[in-house]
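User: Here's a chain of 259 residues. Predict its fold as tokens.
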Amino acid sequence: MKNAAALSGQQPTAAAAVGAAVVTTPGALAATEVSTRDRVTQLLLERGATTAAQLGVALGLSPAAIRRHLDAMLADGDVVAREQTVRGSRGRGRPAKVFLLTDAARGRCGTHHYDNMATAALRWIARSGGSDAVEAFATEQVSALESRCRAAMEDAGDDPLARAEALAGALTAEGYAANATTIASGGQLCQHHCPVAHVAAEFPQLCEAETAVISRLVGTHVQRLATIAHGDGVCTTHIPAQPSRAQSGNPVTTVRTDR
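Assistant: Prediction complete.
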């Protein structure tokens, strides 16, 4: 049978055909979901406590669609729901619920703002005191992290690879999503998240200070092979095999601490 467009004498345009294809593409649907969720987040950031109905009207979404996004954000801990405060006399029925961003979600909205401020501050330090001042600042910044990780590793023993495993656990608790693996040439410590990546891209002294901390905590010389700040997907630190271990002939095993 001919379709409706053909019966009416009108041919579907190329744009309409492309649009139909995009709507049915899973990747495009996922991208749309993310985009809509970002718009919901932005509205809540701007307006504060807002009802689902108000969000739906502002975004042109049906009640069912906006509820789906809000339920997902509630499950992820990005929003909280509260009863709407009604001043004066109130009609029958329960008051509508309003939705607000959590502190964690609000903090993520301001990440780039803080990055820009931190970068501007380091530029001022560099102009005023030179690269030595930036290095001193970076060292000071990671000192508290070093102290907390050292305390978490107090039962790790002296073996550098065992210490790297314990360090990965400590860094994961700090939000670095780290894991340690044993490889033929020694060990490898990977950090899948860097909270200062944007700033460290301009000021590598931050990465250098962190590498020095890893070396001290592991108890041996280490080598940074890759960093997120440099554009790599993961911050990777190599821990050379110790002579006694390399000559022992023991089979190489892999230990993951990110599960």
